[in-house]
Design a protein that fits this description.
Elements (H helix, E strand, L loop, with lengths): L19 H10 L5 H10 L4 H13 L9 H4 L1 H10 L3 H16 L18 H7 L2 H15 L1 H12 L7 H11 L1 H4 L3 H13 L21 H10 L10 H18 L5 H19 L2 H15 L19 H4 L4 H30 L3 H14 L5 H9 L14 H9 L1
Helix pairs in contact: 1-3, 2-6, 2-21, 3-6, 5-6, 5-19, 6-21, 7-8, 7-12, 8-9, 8-12, 9-10, 9-12, 10-12, 10-15, 13-14, 14-15, 14-16, 15-16, 15-19, 18-19, 18-20
C-alpha cells in the first residue's frame, strides 16, 4: 500500500487504513512526513486505538532483527496509559500519533525473515556468550517446545539479573507488559528480549537473596541513609516495601540534583519501577532474588543529596516555574500535591500528552505514576510525585508536532 502524501486526502481506490494489518502496511510504506496524515485519516475511518498502537508495535517488531534500540517499544506501556486516562480529545489522540512516529523511526519496509529454531536448552548459554543470533533461535525453539508462558517465566527471572545496561531490566518489565498488545506476535517480543540480553552481559554473579521480614518497622528514610553511607549496609530482616521505598528516595534525590533528567537519574527511576513491578509479579520463592537484584543494582554508592526532598512548600504554578527554576518548581509542586494530588498528576499527564516528543518523556512519567501508587505514606508520595517537575518535558515551551497534528484531527 502506498504511503499517503502529506496533506492529501485518501481516494476511493485507496481508502484510509483502519485495521491493524492495513495500518502496519501503511506505516511501513509511509515517509516520515506522511505519518501524521496517515494516523488522522485512520482515526477518521474509524480505526480503533488498539489497532493503531498494535500496528505501531508491529512496525518496529516485525521489520527489524537487531536488538539495539527498544525505547520506542518500551514506551508503549506508558503511551497506552496516557491515552486511556486523558480526558481532552486531543490529549487522548496525541499518544497515538507519537506511537506511530517513534516506532516508524526504527521500521524497515520489509518484514524481517524469521530465523529457524535451534535448541531451547542453549538459550542461557547463548545469552551468556553474547551471541544474539543464537539467543534468538533458542528462544524460538523454547516457544515451540514449551509455549509462551514458559518463555514469560524465563524472561521475568533472567531479565532481572543485574547487567551493565539498565535497559535490560526495563525492557524485561515492558516486554512482559506488551504481550497483550503484541497479540499473535508475542513470540517476537520474547525473541527481541533474548537478543537484547545477549547484547548486555551480566555485571557479575547474582547477589545473595535477601531475607526480608514483612512488617518490620524500619522506615525507608533510615534504610536510604544506611545505603548512602555504605553499599554493604545489612539489609536482611527489613520490610520489602520499605526497601523499595528507600530506593525511591535515592532515585528522587538523583532527579532533583540533575539539571536535566537524562542518564542515571532517569534510568534509575524507570529501572526501579521495573524491579518493583517484577517483584510484585514474581512467585513467592523468587521475590527475595528480585529484591536483592534491585538493591544491588540501584542502591550502592548514592551520594548525599544537594537538593533535599524535605524542602518546604512554595507558591506558584509548578509547571510554569519548571521552565527556569527547578527548586521553586519543586516547592510549588509539593504544595500542589498537598492540595490535590490527583489534579497534579492529571496536569502532569496533560503536559506529557501535549509536549512529549521523546520516548523517555512517556517512560519516565509512567514510572513516576506507577511507583507513586505503591507509596502508602502521603508525604513520601507527594515528595516523589513533585519531582515530576524535573522532567525535561516540563521545560518545553511549545507543544509537540504530534499534539498539534492530534489537535487538528480532533
Amino acid at each position: 500500500m502506498a504511503g499517503l502524501a502529506c496533506g492529501s486526502q485518501p481516494s476511493p481506490r485507496a481508502p484510509a487504513p483502519a485495521t491493524r494489518a492495513a495500518l502496519f502496511d501503511a506505516i511501513r510504506a509511509a515517509g516520515t512526513s506522511e505519518l501524521d496524515d496517515l494516523v488522522a485519516h485512520a482515526l477518521e475511518a474509524g480505526a480503533r486505538p488498539e489497532a493503531i498502537l498494535g500496528a505501531a508495535l508491529d512496525a518496529r517488531l516485525r521489520t527489524r532483527d537487531d536488538a539495539e534500540d527498544i525505547h520506542s517499544m518500551a514506551a508503549l506501556t506508558a503511551v497506552q496509559d496516557v491515552h486511556a486516562r486523558a480526558s481532552d480529545p486531543a490529549e487522548r489522540a496525541a499518544p497515538l500519533f507519537f506511537a506511530v512516529w517513534s516506532n516508524h523511526a526504527w521500521c524497515r519496509r520489509d518484514v524481517a525473515a524469521a530465523r529457524p529454531p535451534s535448541d531451547a536448552r542453549g538459550l542461557e548459554t547463548a545469552v551468556d556468550a553474547g551471541d544474539r543470533v543464537a539467543a534468538d533461535r533458542a528462544m524460538a525453539a523454547k516457544l515451540v517446545e514449551e509455549g509462551p508462558e514458559a518463555c514469560a517465566r524465563w524472561v521475568s527471572d533472567v531479565g532481572s539479573v543485574p547487567r551493565g545496561d539498565l535497559h535490560a531490566v526495563i525492557w524485561t518489565r515492558h516486554a512482559l507488559a506488551l504481550r497483550d498488545l503484541a497479540g499473535p506476535h508475542e513470540g517476537l517480543v520474547f525473541r527481541s528480549h533474548a537478543q537484547f540480553l545477549a547484547n548486555s552481559p551480566a555485571s557479575g554473579p547474582p547477589p545473595r537473596p535477601l531475607r526480608p521480614a514483612p512488617g518490620d518497622s524500619t522506615a525507608p528514610e533510615e534504610i536510604a541513609r544506611a545505603l548512602r553511607q555504605s553499599p554493604d549496609a545489612p539489609l536482611d530482616g527489613l520490610d520489602p516495601h520499605a526497601l523499595f521505598g528507600a530506593l525511591a528516595i535515592l532515585c528522587a534525590e538523583q532527579r532533583l540534583r540533575a539539571p536535566f533528567v537524562t542518564g542515571a537519574p532517569l534510568h534509575y527511576t524507570t529501572a526501579l519501577e521495573a524491579y518493583w513491578t517484577l517483584y510484585e509479579a514474581a512467585p513467592a520463592e523468587q521475590r527475595a532474588h528480585v529484591l536483592a537484584r534491585a538493591v544491588a543494582r540501584l542502591g550502592p554508592g548514592a551520594p548525599d543529596p544537594t537538593r533535599v526532598l524535605t524542602a518546604t512548600e512554595g507558591p506558584g504554578d509548578p509547571f510554569a516555574l519548571a521552565v527556569g527554576d527547578i527548586d521553586a518548581a519543586y516547592r510549588a509542586a509539593l504544595r500542589a500535591c498537598a492540595r490535590d494530588e490527583a489534579a497534579f498528576v492529571s496536569a502532569a499527564r496533560s503536559r506529557v500528552a501535549r509536549y512529549g516528543n521523546d520516548e523517555h518523556d512517556y517512560k519516565l512519567f509512567g514510572a513516576l505514576v506507577t511507583v507513586a501508587e505503591r507509596l502508602e505514606d502521603p508525604v513520601a508520595r507527594a515528595r516523589w510525585l513533585a519531582t515530576a517537575v524535573a522532567m525535561n518535558v516540563m521545560r518545553l515551551r511549545d507543544p509537540s508536532p504530534r499534539f498539534q497534528a492530534a489537535a487538528r484531527a480532533t
